[in-house]
Amino acid sequence: MYEDIGRNSPSIVLQTDITNLKKSEKELEQANLYNRSLIEASLDPLVTIGPDGKVTDANSATEKVTGYSKEKIIGSNFSYYFTEPEKADEGYKKVFKEGFVKDYPLEIQHKNGTKTPVLYNASVYKDKTGKIMGVFAAARDIMEYKKFMNALGESEKKYREIYEESFDGLFITSPDGKILDMNKKGIEMFGYESKEEILDLDLLKDVYDNPADRIRILKLVNKQGSAEYEVVVKKKNHEKMITHCSLTTIRKNGVITSYRGIIRDITQDKKAENEIIRAKEEWEDTFNAVPDLIVILDTNFTVRQANKAMADKFNITPEEMVGLTCHEVVHGINSTPTFCPFSKLLLDGQEHTSEIHEDNLGGDFIVSVSPLHDNNGKLIGVVHVARDITERKKIEIKIKKSLEEKEVLLREIHHRVKNNLQIIASLLNLQEINDNQCADNVLKESMGRVKTMATVHEKLYGSPSLSEINFREFIEKLVYDILYSYGKSMIKTNLIIEDINLNIDTTMPLGLIINELITNSVKYAFPNLNGTITIKLSSSHENIELTVADNGIGLSKDFNIADVDSLGLELVKNLVNQLEGNLKVNGTNGTEFKISFKEIQYKERL
Fold first, then answer.
1. Does the residue 491 lie in any domain?
2. pLDDT, tens digit (0-9, with 9 covering 90-100), for 285-307
3. Cβ contact 433:439 at 8 Å
4. Domain check: are 454 and 592 in the same one?
5. Is there a domain that residue 242 lies in?
6. Which single residue of 215, 294, 326, 473 could bond 307 by disulfide (Cβ 3.0 to 4.6 Å)?
7. 3-state secondary structure of 510
8. CA 550 to CA 398: how far, in whole Å?
């Protein structure tokens, strides 16, 4: 307060200090400028709206999105700038009623016709008394967001199409073992008709053939994050299916929320694989069971595969033969011999067969080679097969020798038939018909001798060997025929004959001797038809002894074999001489003829 000293009357002057007020006003102005700068700098459209719905303020972003100037916008209706004015009014009213709205969708229409989708957040603002003065609204341009969401939708659509149309089964499962999702291929694979049937199936109970597999697989996947495996599962009809699966964990904040997997039915593949394995095993079993020596060689004569028979020849395993060259192993030389059929095949590409002798293989072999080609027809190797014919060669030699013997024997048979016919002629010439003999007896005795020779030939061609006869069988038949011929079958026989084979040169004279002695016994030894004829034949080393005896009336006291003049006994003496044997006769207690001799060795005749 100041006093006016320039006047006569007194006066009072009042003065207020407004420094702080001015300072506050300045700060408020600066704050308003700062806030305005923020509003103008915002990329989102910002407006204030009065209680009458008219715009009281707008920022530059609002001008940009509407195409109108701020002067045009301020004082105009807020709803004017939207494609759906009614919806804008409704939102405005909602703010006044509830105090705010959040993410209210509207679409601003530019004056050129373009549209911008936005989400509005708005709230009322009040004066100091709490009276609502208007609404502050901020819009967020969601054009790019909608593009992104549309693109995401398209992406999800494409993903779903790929997911559903995949040739493999795709699935999502929960950590507790429930199926959350599965595509059409998976549903079809398990034999279900709709997704509803398969959702919430229990993997342990309804899917895994062996529940322990699920536990084992989850441990692996949880540890590694993903895994591939083969597992047997059950279809709707409980049929088993072999599958190949891959499983990956889906995590959120480090916690497994689900598993995503791919499943493929490999049942038929496994069957085919097993068939191939079985076929290969069968082929290898057959390959190793073949007694022929087999090797597969490349064009450098290197063994690529060998069967067991081939490896056994060298006392090694088939695996140990692989990598060796055939000429080193088989022939023991550094290069393939010219006689090897493989060498010929390399020249003309054709199959070849050769007969070779190989000491390292232990004998004679027939070797055949067949070419092996790749898919382009290029010669890449050969199948080499060797068949051991060593024993066959020995048999061939025996057969050749036997054929030669048969040829000699045929010539001998012709000679013997000629001799036998000559013998028959001589016997008939020697047989004299006198008053004491009738023609019937003469013919019968001659027929007996001829039949004896015929029996020899009969046994000869029925024998496994054309040069030897089983003598016991021969004697049995001969004695039976004589007794039957003379009607004396009541006479007993005692045959003690060793089971031996004699050649025809020995059998023929021996048979005629037995014929003569048995015939004599039948005719003269048993007047009352009671008695026994005994024939013994035994051998010791090279010596053979024949005894023909009967227990009949015996011989006269003055009997002397050297002085006999009967045709039969004369024939016996001559035949014993032919056998180069010794003859002894005993007439006591019946009659006994004992002949000792050696088997006549075969002599080739022309």
1. yes
2. 888 888 888 888 888 888 888 88
3. yes
4. yes
5. yes
6. 294
7. helix
8. 46
In whole angstroms, how far apart are CA 238 and each of 192, 200, 205, 271, 595? Answer: 12, 18, 11, 19, 93
Q: Any idea what DSSP says for residue 413?
A: H
Report the number of distinct structural domains present in the chain: 4
CA pair distance 14, 575, nearest whole angstrom: 196
Q: Are residues 261 and 294 in the same domain?
A: no
Amino acid at 139: A
Task: Kindly state whether residues 92 and 210 are assigned to the same domain.
Answer: no
- The widest CA-to-CA distance across the chain, in whole angstroms, is 236
Token pair for 406: 């048969």
195: CATH: 3.30.450.20
pTM of the model: 0.40
Residues 478, 557, single domain; the answer is yes
Q: Is residue 313 part of a domain?
A: yes
Listed residue (586, 516, 581) closest to 555, CA to CA: 586
Contact 126, 109 (CB under 8 A): no
What's the pLDDT tens digit per position in 222-233?
999 999 999 999
Find the domain containing 543 and state its range: 430-598
Q: What is the 3-state secondary structure (H, E, C) of 166-204?
A: CCCEEEEECCCCEEEEECHHHHHHCCCCCHHHHCCCEHH
What is the Cα–Cα distance from 188 to 186, expressed in whole angstroms? 5
Q: Indicate the residue type of 381.
A: G
Q: What are phi and psi of 207, to 5 degrees?
A: -120, -55
